[in-house]
Amino acid sequence: MQNDIKIYNSLSGQKEKFEPINPGHIGMYVCGPTVYSNVHLGNCRTFMSFDMIFRYFKHLGFKVRYVRNITDAGHLENDAEEGEDKIAKKARIEQIEPMEVVQRYTVDFHEILQKFNFLPPSIEPTATGHIIEQIEIIKDIVEKGFAYESNGSIYFDVAKFNENNHYGKLSGRKVEDMIANTRELAAQDDKRNPQDFALWKKAEPQHIMRWPSPWSDGFPGWHLECTAMSTKYLGEQFDIHGGGMDLKFPHHECEIAQAEACNGQSPVNYWMHANMLTLNGKKMSKSTDNNIFPNEIFSGENNKLSKAFSPTVVRFFMMQAHYRSILDFSNDALLASEKGFNKLMEAIGQLDQLQLEKNTIGIDIQKLKTACYEAMNDDFNTPILIANLFEGVKFVNLIKDGKATISNQDFEELKSIFQIFVFDVLGLEKTSTGSNGEADTLGGVVDLLIGIRNEARANKDFATSDKIRDELATLGIQLKDSKDGTNYSLK
Q1: Residue 189 has pLDDT above 50, yes or no
Q2: For residue 327, what are the contacts with CB-CB under 8 A and spacing of at least 6?
Q3: Do residue 383 and residue 477 come from a single domain?
């Protein structure tokens, strides 16, 4: 199966046969979070996509070095060349040290990913832990004539680089078009051209996060950190570089230019980008309140969803869309995913209870297994994989109802297929969820009490009904009655 994988390469714009640089080994780098706020659900989708890819490569027997960084050096507002550092701004507002901000949101990031059942990466380097490496790369780029100093800052010279290289080949942009669409530089700007980007910025007196360098006390450019960390742990050329679609330009474009300026070769064989997550058909945005955080989904404490949903149901929902497609997050979509997830778990739970007897219809398990691998080998097509798994659910139901026959060997193969693709590759967890998706017996217990309460209300026994509601409230479980029934959230 290792030789059949095709990956959509953002650089070429088409699917390509995957051929690792070192047979049996894969180097994969994914741009991690900037830790100055709670982890964004859209970022979770990106990291979840690459967690799935990491899982599949490991299942196939590849030795994978998966590097996912933590950006703790801060970015300027709107990732611009001027303005206030995001981490420093948070620290100033809350009157704490910048590294307290970093620690808090790094812990939050790890806790959320653990709830979603992510595998830890092989290496999780931090930008602040690699300042020396970044300075050395800058020295090299300056020495080779692709960067210049201006008032203590170092800028990458895009025009110089573009004389014999192609800046814009990942995003499909041309430098000439970018120049034509850019306003004149202000007289006080340190850059020679608007397209140039910072490798090192001299820190203003009020800038908190700063380090000494040959040029000034300052801080590295956003794009540089990933070049430094990826090349240190994966080499000057490695297999896969991933991230969200929003990073294609300028971040990944600049990474390519930096690496080619240093090493004279393209740094990455396959560029992969996960698409965006929308909420109720609109772009997620804090300013318009069209936003939701993972813990708000798990607790039900939000104004977007009718109930709480478990992390594994949310993961299943995200796996039902291809990683390169836009996915809309909505209450109806989650309800549908929860039903599908419960149906899948019910079928898997019945496997060990099935009685294999002489029946009527034969089942081709090898065809199912081949279809599952073909889906994953086609650019990690998880929606097709899940459709195939539900064919397996049909097989389970046919066997249960005495309408199909299967050999003991094929029956063990069927169980293996579910284990491999549902749990090992998709990363779902075997849970018995209640109506609110709680991944433990709590959901079932609360559902039972809701049923008793509904029966009491139907019999006009409002004393019992109110008692159940009030007792649950004292335990931190808030019931929500609506025309569609009763759901609950955890306070």
Answers
A1: yes
A2: 45, 275, 276, 277, 278, 318, 321
A3: no
Provide the domain limits for residue 8: 2-274
Q: How many domains does the chain have?
A: 3
Are 347 and 454 found together in one domain? no
Q: Each residue of 144-167: pLDDT tens digit?
A: 999 999 999 999 999 999 999 999
- 409 in the same domain as 358: yes
Please list the residues that pair with 333 across neighbouring strands: none
Q: Within this chain, do residues 289 and 185 fall inside the same structural domain, yes or no? A: no
User: How far apart (Å, rounded) are the C-alpha atoms in residues 276 and 289?
Assistant: 17
| pLDDT tens column, 271-313 | 999 999 999 999 998 888 899 999 999 999 999 999 999 999 9
Q: What is the 3-state secondary structure (H, E, C) of the chain?
A: CHHHCEEEECCCCEEEECCCCECCEEEEEECCCECCCCCCHHHHHHHHHHHHHHHHHHHCCCEEEEEECEECCCCEHHHCCCCCEHHHHHHHHHCCCHHHHHHHHHHHHHHHHHHCCCCCCCECCECHHHHHHHHHHHHHHHHCCCEEEECCEEEECHHHHHCCCCCCCCCCCCHHHHHHCCCCCCCCCCCCCCCCEEEEEECCCCCCCCECCCCCCEEECHHHHHHHHHHHHHCCCEEEEEEEHHHHHHHHHHHHHHHHHHHCCCCEEEEEEECCEEECCEECECCCCECCCHHHHHHCCCCCCCCCCCHHHHHHHHHCCCCCCCEEECHHHHHHHHHHHHHHHHHHHHHHHCCCCCCCCECCHHHHHHHHHHHHHECCCHHHHHHHHHHHHHHHHHHHCCCCECCHHHHHHHHHHHHHHHHHHCCCCCCCCCCCCCCCHHHHHHHHHHHHHHHHHHCCCHHHHHHHHHHHHHCCEEEEEECCEEEEEEC
Do 13 and 81 lie in one domain? The reply is yes
The CATH number of whichever domain residue 226 belongs to comes to: 3.40.50.620
Cβ neighbours for 149, distance < 8 A, ≥ 6 positions apart: 142, 215
Q: Is residue 421 part of a domain?
A: yes
Residues 323 and 300 in one domain: yes
Confidence (pLDDT) at 440: 47
